Amino acid sequence: MTTQIDFLQELLSNKVYTWPDLQSSVALVSIAGNDYSAYLARGGSFQTLQSFIPLVVDQLVVDLKRLHGMGMKKVAVTALEPLGCLPQATVASSFQECNGTQNTAVTFHNLLLSQAVTKLNNETKDSSFVILDLYASFMSVLENKADHLGSSKFENPLKPCCMGLSSKYSCGSVDESGAKQYTICDDPESAFFWDTVHPTQQGWNAVYSALQGTLQQLHSLC
Length: 222
Hints:
SGNH_hydro_sf, mainly alpha, hydrolase, three-stranded parallel sheet, hydrolase activity, acting on ester bonds, GDSL esterase/lipase, 9 helices, lipid metabolism
């Protein structure tokens, strides 16, 4: 993220964007959990993750402050979605239940983020930082098997549409001969998740519907 902000700084220096442009814009800061999956992939454990989470949030705060210092008056930052409900975690229960351990870690991240954003809003009189609560919006859809408007129904929201034929394959995998080693459900619009990590377009539409209250709050600040 620091690198991406560096790129934005270059665009400002090259006058591609101006300071007034930033003042009239909304910055979206999206954290999806890759910091934590990379930490675990490199040998970290859920036991030590609790001490790593504050480091991630602290760096996030540094980046938020930097965006504000560049002239961004409105900054929306995403809370983490329930990573324990992603199919890569629920496959262990045949896509029947979320992983509580992972969601506990996510809840801790989101708590620290909420506290940090509250502090930032108290410190910056001319700026409003808003959290887009992906955790609550995801859980609302997953628990109700639909968006709150009732326009999207998901028969088993924890099961992905696209899956590998076995644990050694994933969505989009092919073997040495180029033969497909994955299956796709008959009706992708009835699935909340596309693969083991990403929601379908219909899934994101449902999350968007659940976020309407927060988005209206953000719009009122602009």
